[in-house]
Please model this.
Amino acid sequence: MVKKRKAGVNQKSAQNVEEQTHLRNRDSISVFLERSYKVYNRVEFIETDPIFFPSSYSGNKEYVAFVSALFAYGRVNLIKDFLIRFFDYYGNDPNNNLVQESSSVYYRFQTSKDIFNLYGMITEIYEKYGSIEGAFLSFSDELEEALKRFVLYCREFGRKRLLDRGFFQLFPDPESSGLKRFRMFLRWMIRKDEIDFGLWKNFDRKDLIYPIDTHILRFADKNGIVSNETNSLKNALKITEFFRGINSSDPLKYDFTITRLGMINNCKFKKDYNCEFCAHVINCPFC
Model:
């Protein structure tokens, strides 16, 4: 019994030390990220990000952004090739009244039938609600609840039409998934700066949850924010809470910046052999 009690005390003490270290690290990370934000949060870097597509295409930007976000998985060249085929056939506006699927418009796990039904669902949303933001608002004025109900709406659309798993892969279970692609889309729509569009006016950026990709997860794991690199809702909430401690009104401010550090500088967010070649090595909190 004594040993167990002692172990519990030691564990609590270790947790307190970890929390204090975590707070000190957050201060140094905040300074570093603000400096990096001024370097990377510029349009010249969007070619390495899925936001390149809605930034480049004309037409209904919300619609183009939604489709681009849904298919933002896999190799960049394959995504680009698919989106070109998609928008060439289905158009840059969700009101083209197409009635026939194209056998050449498919992507990885999504068949041409999945794509055709996806387009049909999107046009239905625009007909019923006027926009995707309108659909969200019809479900709830609280962003998380609106997102959950929107994804369930999409999943129900697929179930009613007996669609295959390729369609549902685009709409993961909102109760457990981090919903990375949806959260990326929401960042584009709700935040406003040189990168993000800020088209939606009825939701607040402070309520956004992190879209956790490989680089965000690595950052969080190496800095003790999460204990694994799983794209789960639990991890997304932990990461967002950390950044709310830095900027409570705009927790996703550094999302684009962190992913550029990973993609452009090959940053591992810890001391690594790449550090000596990095332009940010001076005063870097990770080295």
